[in-house]
Amino acid sequence: MNEKIQNLLDQIYALEKELRDELQEQEDLALYHIRDKRIEFEKNVRETHQKLKKGLIRWFRESQPLNILSAPFIYGMIIPLMIYDLSLTVYQHICFRLYRVPRVNRSDYIIIDRHHLAYLNSIEKINCAYCGYGNGLIAYAREITARTEQYWCPIKHANKVLDAHTRYPYFLSYGDPADLQKKIDQYREQLRNEK
Fold this sequence. Notes:
By secondary structure, this protein is mostly helical. The protein has a domain at 65-192. Helices cover 63% and strands 4% of the residues. The protein is built from seven helices and two strands. The chain has helices at 3-30, 43-52, 56-62, 65-75, 78-99, 122-152, 180-192; strands at 32-35, 38-41. It has a two-stranded antiparallel sheet with strand order 1-2. β1 and β2 form a beta hairpin. The radius of gyration is 22 Å and the shape is elongated.
């Protein structure tokens, strides 16, 4: 990778981190505080949340019938998702230990905290928990797969990748076989040294 590309990637990473930090700071100031992993709202915010909560009867009455009809198909995916979750966890606990690669912390990706929002009724809370689980699981899977790809084949594709994982831009160029095994060994060592 040439120096200009490396510098651009470093700038992108720094800007993304700055943006995440700024967004988090803005949310912390405006709505809530986290103390010992516990989310706390100011009293007036909690009261406003309670006033905005939509009861179940009203929620069902105002829901579109198609949304209710699709629920069994949406929630039917919970079984394959749970099997996938278990498979990913077993996979990384076996393979990553063998490769001496740090395991992905599942709780960094699967975040279920929207049930603390008092303006959501019980169905909305369940929906939010489901989405938090499903999207978190996919992000968890993506990081496990990205580490596996870095270990086994850190080579870019010839075709454009629409939404590449964060490790991908640092992979080897497509079609450049020079010192391939040496470079792969360097990627593996880099991966092993991550915290």
